Amino acid sequence: MNNSILKVNSDQTWWADTQLAALKQIGLADAPKAELAVFLHYAQRTGLDPFARQLYMIARGGKYTIQASIDGLRIIANRSDKYAGQVGPFWCGEDGEWKDVWLSNSPPVAAKVGVSHKDFDEPLYAVAKFDSYAVPNNPIWKKMPDVMLAKCAESLALRKAFPNDLSGIYTAEEMAQADVVAPVAVSSEAVTRINTPVSIPDKAIETVEADVNFFSTLQSYLKEIHEVNDLEELKVLYSQFKNLLDFKFLLADESDTTTLRAEFDKARKEFA
Fold first, then answer.
1. Which domain does 43 fall in, by range?
2. Angle at the Cα of 69 (from 64 to 75), degrees rounded to 5?
3. What is the count of structural domains for the chain?
4. Does residue 50 contact residue 39 with C-beta atoms inside 8 Å?
5. E strands of 200-252, at which residues?
6. Are residues 167 and 78 in the same domain?
7. Rounded distance, CA 42 to CA 53, Å?
8. Same domain, 62 and 79
9. I want to staple 156 with a disulfide (CB 3.0 to 4.6 A). Which of 118, 126, 221, 264 is the partner?
């Protein structure tokens, strides 16, 4: 897309037609006008680009929340003439000893980041505990627990250092716990099919399509695909879902069908 066409201007009072079309493509087709008005306000207030994945509006339990990527928070801090860099990240285990690299195969217990502000003599530190932010069974948290926890600590530290600019703006990593729901009950037959390569007979696919729980699970995976923050996270998800890529299922609003492979392709194009 042409970035100049999609650019959000400080004086516009509503989304342009091209912007609305792009918002539909990133999952906001059903968002109420009042919520879109708030989203426009946040885009203008922060100067972040919603079409470059710097600012998001996410549906949770029928309500919408606005959050930024960690890169978005960094951009806002960099624009300030008070920003003086960062210290860390650091990680620690149960022993409480802080390290500047995490080499253990087990997740760290906590991460710490300091943000330097020109008006203060010492960096403003923030600590994020693994138990407070980690999402059980999430493939990205399993693959990169140190990286994800460091992002949470950095977000906390940036808000402490720049409350006027970042108050009320949270990152996807910090909000991920809000998306944790009770596990979907999947039959043993569906579990067997999940672990089966996708090149299976049409008759077997028809059998799978009758399993509502299985396809509810696929719908929840679709949400994870479109909430990742960078290509590295997308690759991790792809490797986790590789046996499920070609199952066809309904979108949550039942307006059309899709596959995880098609959704991964869309996400890659958006990053490109």
1. 3-68
2. 125
3. 3
4. yes
5. 249-250
6. yes
7. 14
8. no
9. 126
Domain boundary among 68, 92, 111: 68
Say if residue 40 is in the same domain as residue 12: yes
Residue 186, SS3 per DSSP: coil
CB 232, CB 139: distance < 8 Å: no
Q: What is the dihedral of CA 90, 96, 97, 101, to 10 degrees?
A: -30
In the numeric block, the tokens 């253990």 are attached to 104
pLDDT in tens, 125-160: 999 999 988 888 788 888 899 999 999 999 999 999
What CA–CA distance (Å, rounded) separates 182 from 174?
A: 19
| Domain end marker among 68, 85, 120 | 68
**The model's pTM:** 0.65
User: For the chain, which residues score pLDDT lower than 70?
Assistant: 1-3, 61-62, 177-219, 252-255, 272
Q: Is residue 183 part of a domain?
A: no
